[in-house]
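Notes to self, 1-alkyl-2-acetylglycerophosphocholine esterase:
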Amino acid sequence: MHSSLITILLLATGGTIAKFIIPQPNGPYGVSLIDAQVIDESRRDPYTNASARIIPFTVISPAGPAGKCNVTVQPYMPNATASFWEQVIPSPTDGWNLSISFNNTFTQAELSLCKPVPAQQNEYPVILFSPALGNSREFYHIMCMNLASQGYNVITVEEPGQVGVLTYADGDVQITDISAIESDDQTLIAAVDVRVADLDFVLTTISSPSFRASHPNIQLNTSKVAIFGHSLGGAASLASIVNNTRYLGGANLDGQVVGTPLTHTTTKPSMIFGSTGHNQSLAVLNWDTTWKNLLGWKVELGLEDSVHYSFTDLPFLLETLGLENASTKQILAPLVGTIDGKQALKSVVGVMHSFFQFVFSGGAVKGVSVVNEAKAVGQVAVLNGTNV
Ligand SMILES: *[C@@H]1O[C@H](CO)[C@@H](O)[C@H](O)[C@H]1NC(C)=O
Ligand SMILES: *[C@@H]1O[C@H](CO)[C@@H](O)[C@H](O)[C@H]1NC(C)=O
Ligand SMILES: *[C@@H]1O[C@H](CO)[C@@H](O)[C@H](O)[C@H]1NC(C)=O
Ligand SMILES: *[C@@H]1O[C@H](CO)[C@@H](O)[C@H](O)[C@H]1NC(C)=O
Ligand SMILES: *[C@@H]1O[C@H](CO)[C@@H](O)[C@H](O)[C@H]1NC(C)=O
Ligand SMILES: *[C@@H]1O[C@H](CO)[C@@H](O)[C@H](O)[C@H]1NC(C)=O
Ligand SMILES: *[C@@H]1O[C@H](CO)[C@@H](O)[C@H](O)[C@H]1NC(C)=O
Ligand SMILES: *[C@@H]1O[C@H](CO)[C@@H](O)[C@H](O)[C@H]1NC(C)=O
Ligand SMILES: *[C@@H]1O[C@H](CO)[C@@H](O)[C@H](O)[C@H]1NC(C)=O
Ligand SMILES: *[C@@H]1O[C@H](CO)[C@@H](O)[C@H](O)[C@H]1NC(C)=O
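result:
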């Protein structure tokens, strides 16, 4: 049922805008994708000083056996978010100074999904995901759809005030210059604390009877929950497992660690998965100090031929859309690495799936299976850890 080809639809009206539909993920389940938001009225928004903190998020859930679901096509990102990134990513002043036009790249991308099957959602555990500082949560949705398709509810949590562009449910667009957050350690630590609180608020709220009653398509069982994230979101994931007893385990994808994981220990299963050249010997990442505080089962991995943003959808997406090809590969390498896009997705999803299987199994699955998957999936170096 799953064509490996990309469907190209020329719209009847207008005629000039080609839509690229990213095929459904490869796992046993089709998945649904639902945007929502919660409002924390107990906190002022630390970035806008609004009287409450709005936290948008997306719930990606299994929705029946792959190939048998009721298919629906949804945009990869809201238009305003897509066109912002199309301008910013290649730009010499804001982004990477790439001599390639990204115009229409993200706007044209659509996802092949399933209509939600809420009655089945509570059979699967919950995984929270926190994006990199600056990055829209949508840049991880292909990765998270592929993970969800293995049998998880994956929730990507946006961070207003810490993301370059945010299109709210009502269409309001918030543009944020995040450079001030990177300026010093104290500001970064405060940003991680905001994330830990936001993630905790989302987790607490989605399982409340009032949320379930007002969101018939989001019926989650949060008795089993774990967390991972990219970059500052990876730091927030480790901070979350240190701070909150509800998380059963956590993984940091290529994030410099700041805050509580440097001063507090945890015995929960944990992972650090870095890009090429990022490991415990690179002092700025603080992974050596973090490592000593991870007292439970742990593993340190490296994604080969990768760079920091290889842990987003971009390697797969740019290759799939044809923007990355033989003649543009070198130009795009600083952004996505030289790893094959399909392999990058396969490696990260394969490793995360085996990690979460272990975390949620309550001892039935052994940690060594994570190490074995890392060795088997391709382009992953096993650097350190419990069963290495
Ligand atoms: C935030 O808003 C409150 C209430 O309007 C006000 O008292 C406070 O001074 C504001 N803080 C900042 C930093 O603007
Ligand atoms: C597809 O939609 C139909 C009509 O709403 C419904 O009866 C059926 O159960 C759905 N199938 C799946 C797999 O969700
Ligand atoms: C987004 O842009 C596409 C094409 O550029 C257009 O077809 C679509 O209607 C737009 N969607 C919204 C919600 O504006
Ligand atoms: C961007 O790249 C071009 C061509 O490589 C170069 O001439 C230009 O100086 C660069 N601009 C910036 C701001 O780095
Ligand atoms: C890309 O879009 C921007 C803004 O809409 C426009 O200024 C620019 O000329 C476009 N570039 C190309 C190569 O079409
Ligand atoms: C996390 O725990 C540390 C240490 O107990 C505490 O200082 C910090 O405020 C907590 N952060 C959040 C967001 O709960
Ligand atoms: C939630 O899942 C747990 C086990 O993971 C189970 O014991 C519990 O009955 C479930 N709750 C509901 C409401 O389905
Ligand atoms: C660890 O990182 C250092 C510094 O980036 C690098 O020189 C070294 O090759 C890396 N080691 C491995 C095993 O990747
Ligand atoms: C490679 O991608 C670039 C940028 O989208 C495009 O201009 C070029 O035609 C593509 N080349 C091939 C061989 O597909
Ligand atoms: C694993 O990390 C520990 C602590 O940093 C270090 O002492 C040990 O040599 C590392 N093992 C390998 C195989 O690199």
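- Residues 27-65+116-385 form a domain with the Rossmann fold fold (CATH 3.40.50.1820).
- Residues 134 and 163 are 4 Å apart (CA to CA).
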